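Summary for the funding panel

The consortium committed to producing paired sequence-structure records for every protein in the target list. Below we show the first two records in order, beginning with the earlier of the two.
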Amino acid sequence: MLQVNGNGKDTIEWTGFHHAWYRFNFALMSGLYKFLFSHRYSGRENVPQKGPILLVANHQSFLDPIAIGLGCGRTISYLARKTLFKVPLVGSYLRSVGCYPVDQDGVATQGIKDAIRLLQGNRALLVFPEGARTYTGEVQAFRPGVQLIVKKSRCPIVPVGIAGAFEALPRTRALPAFCPLFLPGRYASIGVSLGKPLDGAQFLDLPREKFLTTLQDAISKEVENAEKLRRGS
């Protein structure tokens, strides 16, 4: 919910009901996820529990938000593609659990504004700078909108890598390949690696291509770590 605080500055605040609703849904979805998929995490201590934080991750699957959310230890908001919010009931539900629409094909002005307001309101925000789920499992080229979010918010950036979610539920398949914890591990195990926070200020003067390359390299490193995690190596 977007509200205005006492000094007239936009900020993002949730009522007690919103927090309770988020916790209920997160407990439900994370419980189901933990039952159906083998998962491993590293770097949870790298996510600050207070203040604004921008989590930037590769995008393999619809499983990514819940998998990454489990590793954060705090309430996080998400940017999701605008078309999802046009589906009856789905849009209302997504908004109720902290999702904000972003236009994948246009300049995504409103989505970027929402992201900046969330971070200025001391929230944790997860974004996928590839803009869409990968078709191949590899990290795709980043879109430039994330640079504007970083420049305007100047908040710490946590690079996040996820591996195995593509094998569990790629965008070309309707049903996931389950790998419950009580069964022997296999290719559908999921790993999430959260890197040490990067100072957003160090990116302010970088040209666009240098900025995107530097950020993508940081995330690719965490993807490699996540791949080792899920394979137990």
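The next record, for a separate protein in the list, is shown here:
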Amino acid sequence: MKVVKTLKHPITSHHRMLDATLHVYQEALSFLITVIQEQFMALKSLSTQAVVTAVERLTHRTRHNPDPLYTEFDQRFYKFPSYFRRSAIAEAFGIVKSHHSRFELWQAERQHAQQEGKRFSKKPPILQAQHQAFPCLYKGNMFIRTSHTTANIKVFHQGDWVWLPITFKGQDLFKRNVWSMKECSPTLVRTGKRYALHIAYEGDVKLTQTEPSKQRVCAVDLGLTNSAVCSVMDASGTVLARTFINQAKEKDRMRQITGKLKQAQRQSGIGTKPNFWRRINGLQTHIVHDTAHQILAFAQKHRADVIVMEYLGKMRLPKGTWGAKRFRAKLQFWAKRCIQTKVTEMAHFLGMRVSMVNPANTSALAFDGSGFVQRNTKRDVAVFTTGKMYHADLNASYNIGARYVLRNIQKSTSEMRWLSLEAKDPSLAKRTYWTLASLIRVQQALRLQT
């Protein structure tokens, strides 16, 4: 499969001198969004390449096109590079097309609510002309590399487009494992007051082809008390390793900040509160990245072939909660989704497979098959019906891995043979009741049949 990895190269030689280039590109993008919105009915059925050609005829004067409809573009953006113009047209068309798709979905939701006689208060989406977009510096035309850490780029300076030599921080391509991949054109990105070149590397990765009966599974439960609990097991159900991943200090800071944010909102109303959100987003990003890296390191250490996680679906907030507690539940769900996305990207880059299983009852059922469990107030300990006490998230990770292995066994087993297994173990009839004990019983039954 094709994978893409982007490396950040901070520019060390210039900062404020690049502001004009970014500003003129974003202004041109806003102008083109307005043009495409006005002509969208004629453009919506065309491909992106055809739209680029059509909009160029509407905005850019040439010898063969002396009278474009929108002459203001050439007047406002004199000598605007053709590669920038085509890139901005393609990006503007995507923005406008996305807006119309969201507007059609809003209309369908409103019509559905009216048919059912329900109140519909959701506001329609509004097309925004101003976007924080970043230009792509195409190789040879806008970007010429002169060494490992230097290059010449075309920028807008003092009313003209000129070549500017820059110096940027290099990256160890061997350490980042992209030395054999194709280097794409860089993107000029601003973060705060600093600029960087984001260079993407494309390559092909072959995912593991291990037979299901010989696979090692790394089951991950994104729990409530821990960021993640992982366990590695083989196809027979033998647990080979386990680990607990948590960021206690960061979560303690997050709890304090969310409490202060809700207190400030009670006093002064719901506002943007940028200082609180900056700290929350920083902690959230650190938790996501640290958790994902530890999961991949654990899976690599124990030579796992596939990483299995729960399919989260839509957000389900706990009933009877409000204020900071409800807000923390939202943050936790968003973090889980980000962790899954990050783990999937990193695993595919390393050649590992990623699979999702049904999350129903993974934490509610005991892995030893004794039935439903009771959770304590903190919800970190599960008490089995036999009186045994076990870590709730670790119990869930066993069931997650077992469900993946059982699903592979069911796919490779004939229906007649599987029905005979269900007759001996009725809990196999529903996937939401599969546990580690179910996997062990199925493996024993299959060995007896052979």
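Regarding this second record: The longest strand covers residues 194-204. The longest helix spans residues 82-115.
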